[in-house]
Amino acid sequence: MLQTRGVTAVEELVMLAGVWAAISAYTVHFAAARPELALSNLVVGIALAVVGLCMSMAPERTGDLNLAVLLMGAWLIISPWVVVRDPGTGAILSNVITGACVCLFALIAGGLLMSKRKT
Q1: How buried is 100 (Cβ within 10 angstroms: 0-12 exposed, 13-18 middle, 19+ buried)?
Q2: pTM for this one?
């Protein structure tokens, strides 16, 4: 049996980042000015939270979902410029930092899973 305690901790961080992405438009106060970006963040945030929850429950079976998490993190990074014309500083900072953290978490979890499989 794989020792996946570290992977589970990283996937729980993905879940928390997803929750933050979902509520960030309302806490950073750009939901009213940019509702399209708020909706994008809400959908991606809920998806990240659900995938992070599933991955933390059975990390040895869901290693392939790291690519999906990585792509969602990349979308969070580029979405302020793709979804709206003038995203604003708060929206840019929130999305870029959250997306970078999600990408980092996906890479760390994938690396930990690969190192556990080798041993």
Answers
A1: middle
A2: 0.90
